[in-house]
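Supplementary Data S3. Sequence and structure tokens for construct A.
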Amino acid sequence: MVEIFYGGNEKYNAVIGHFFQTAVNVSKKIKTDGNRFVHYTSADTAYKIIHNKELWLRNAAVMNDFSEVSYGLECLKAARASVAGHALTNALNSIDPSIITEADDLFWKWLPFFQSDTFLTSFAVHEDDEDDIGRLSMWRAYGNVAIVFKNDAFVNPGPNPIEGVTVSPVSYFNAKEAGDALFQMAAAIEHNSSGFRAIPKGLLVSNLFRAMRFSILANKHPGFREEREWRIIHSPSHDASPMPRLLVTVNGVPQHICKFKWPGLNGDKQFIENIDRIIIGPAEHAWVMRNAFHDLLASNGIPDAARRVAVSNIPLRR
């Protein structure tokens, strides 16, 4: 579907992956465990997502966590100023002293655009025992319908990635944990110094810059850890992409959104096929909504639509 973590020559990805070790490890575990992904939202938005077969990426500034981006930036700055940050600088300097300087120059040049011009949408890792009830904290925070997507929709992006769009797991690091990640990166560079020296400097610079970028775009306060969030991320100023950017009104707030659709000629069909189930959360008219979403799935060619729509019995009042 989209590019995961890092791009470039596959020949070097095993080494470059050390810049993204936390994300790589999470992705491997998700792929092994076969977890699905779930998007909690309002019934109105869930209907539009399925009917239009598209997702809207919204500006990070309007997301529910008011510290989006700024929290990750503060963690990165603290980690870089720590003993761990100095260890990383020394490890990179042993390869080429200009790597860290050039990556830093790129990062600070683009930071204002990442802060103001980053669009994303979010998913949570879904567990099997949540199939019929969902997750209480998510019902409280995000809405009354959950769209559960199959594992392959995220971990096996297929041959036609959408240019300029990245899917990434979210970390929940505090400053110390961010520093620990830098220590691990420094140790990996020292241990694989010959492998890093074999990679063109430009590729090292661009991926170190990319790692710094996603350390601020995909890191949240540890208080959100139970969400186990993944994000689809796009920064139009930096990333060329065919995705349309539109001006719309959401909850009375005029704003730009980026319209995300599955790639390829059969993208709409693939979008529907990737829907594993719908969970209707606590709502006054839950069974009316259940019947409506059943008919919506059935009208889109899902033969076992009745089995795919559940009504949560969590006793939460709205």
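Construct B, processed identically:
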Amino acid sequence: MRAAIVNGPGATPVCAEFPDPEPKPGQEPLHLVGAGLHHVVRGLASGRHYGSDHAYPLVPGVDAVARTAGGSLVYTGFARAPWGTMAERLVTPFELELPAGADPLAVAAGMNPGLSGWMVLTARRKEVGRLGTVLVLGATGMSGALAVRAALALGADRVVAAGRDPEALERLRELGALPVSLDHDGPDALAAALATAVDQAPPTLVLDFLWGAVAEAAFAALARVGMSEDAPEVAYVQIGSLAGARAAVPAALLRSRRIRVTGSGIGSVSKAEMLAEAPAVMAHFADATFQAPYTAYPLDRVGEAWAHQGRTRAVVVPD
């Protein structure tokens, strides 16, 4: 079969023949409709992601929309290595039928980034009964923008959307979020901008898709001065690291504020938990609550897809 193939760490995929995946007895292979080129896909293929097994050659891709032998469209993924989802035929452990009205390529583009924030938000609501004020760091990327939409859909009291893209921030403001620009020179200016937002709308939940210097600025903004009793606990959840793999957490912040810093991703969230929530996320794509702009690339242009940048998500299609 034709597939995107990565032959080594850091290599750009090429379209070539690759052995067909091996189905279980009685299992029919699925036929690719579209596979999203997410940040995690690049990370796993390059060996930089903690989930990589560093075995090559491999077919990249963690999830996809595919067509069954009977013609149904399904969301699927978690193919057994070295097979991924950027191939003409897929063998996977689950199939979730797409709801009526859902654009299959938008689902392919948006399910992985959409689930990343959704899982944190629904877990928090189950834990404490409400979301309160949610601060999203990295709100103008696809994962962050979908998290803002999810927080609003799930009944957050207020959503603070922090990001760099002014046009995207304006769209989030129109949805009802409080926009905060992260386009500032230097850590002090960044911390000051976040501090203003924190004073205006103290968060009880932070979704951080950036980490690095942005997280350090957020920690500075959340810091307390004085000995008064602290406000309600802040749950700070690290989801992505587009701004850096490390961030220093001030000791005084941990002692002066009731703050809990955790992470969310494959490993800390089970596959079963993600699959249980996936139908609700797909339903929001079907009713246009969630949107995932995409650019489609055929398999023989997977190298161009790999280099794709901008406001849309690259989606690899069979032809």
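The mean pLDDT is 93. The radius of gyration is 20 Å.
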